[in-house]
Design goal:
The protein is mostly helical and about 240 residues long. The chain has eleven helices and no strands.
Length: about 240
């Protein structure tokens, strides 16, 4: 509940005209300055404003007014209003852009598409107050003024603030997947290193087997050569 009544100035007009409350009491209740209440009483302010009865809205009772009239130092207490105002929800949709700036939105969209391609269409719509169709036409170069468009920073044009732009860019950067690039030599996985060792061991084993076979062949040849020499001597 608010600390001031509904329509404070109209309530002050009614209290001045219909009660014997002091200016300080009326000013305290309506959260106005006592001099402004005095100006209302003198007819210098609030001319043409129709007074609003706080009793009919439940913000004051007749007994509360009588207590105030009996004691100049008494401060009126605001009652719970019978008028229930609906809660004002946050308006969703594209940002409102003044008419004088609307013709500059295509240039701002082109700048965002070129400078920050990571931004989504919804983010551009929030920044400059445009539509998805307009963004698509500028991206595809099918906009009616595409040939003469010049990229311009939306912050410079006054379509959004630098804080809002930075916020959307940082959000887009967080949502963008990180590409893993080559950063120098790294350790090979265990499967590759183990396989490499097995290949090296196999090659070494094959080399030893081949050497052994070669040695055996030379030894056999030497034996055969020795036998032939003995046979020649016996002859």
């Amino acid at each position: 509940m608010s600390n001031a009544p509904l329509m404070p100035k109209a309530t002050a007009v009614w209290l001045v005209d219909n009660t014997a409350l002091t200016f300080d009491q009326v000013a305290e209740f309506t959260k106005m300055h006592p001099l402004e209440v005095r100006a209302i009483a003198d007819g210098d302010a609030a001319q043409g404003i129709k007074g609003m009865d706080p009793i009919s809205t439940g913000q004051l009772s007749r007994e509360e007014i009588e207590r105030g009239e009996a004691d100049p130092d008494y401060r009126l207490k605001l009652g719970e209003s019978k008028v229930v105002l609906p809660p004002v929800g946050k308006k969703k949709g594209p940002r409102y852009t003044p008419v004088s700036r609307r013709h500059e939105r295509p240039s701002a969209i082109l700048w965002l598409l070129r400078s920050h391609p990571e931004l989504k269409d919804a983010q551009i719509m929030r920044l400059v107050g445009t539509t998805k169709t307009t963004i698509a036409s500028i991206r595809d170069r099918t906009h009616w003024n595409a040939s003469t468009l010049t990229p311009m920073d939306p912050v410079t044009l006054g379509l959004c603030s630098q804080i809002e732009l930075d916020f959307e860019v940082q959000r887009a950067a967080k949502e963008k997947p990180i590409n893993q690039e080559y950063g120098g030599a790294t350790l090979l996985p265990a499967s590759e290193t183990t396989r490499k060792e097995e290949l090296e061991n196999t090659a070494a084993s094959d080399k030893r087997r081949d050497d052994a076979e070669v040695d055996a062949v030379f030894a056999k040849l030497k034996t055969l050569g020795g036998k032939k020499h003995d046979e020649d001597e016996n002859e």
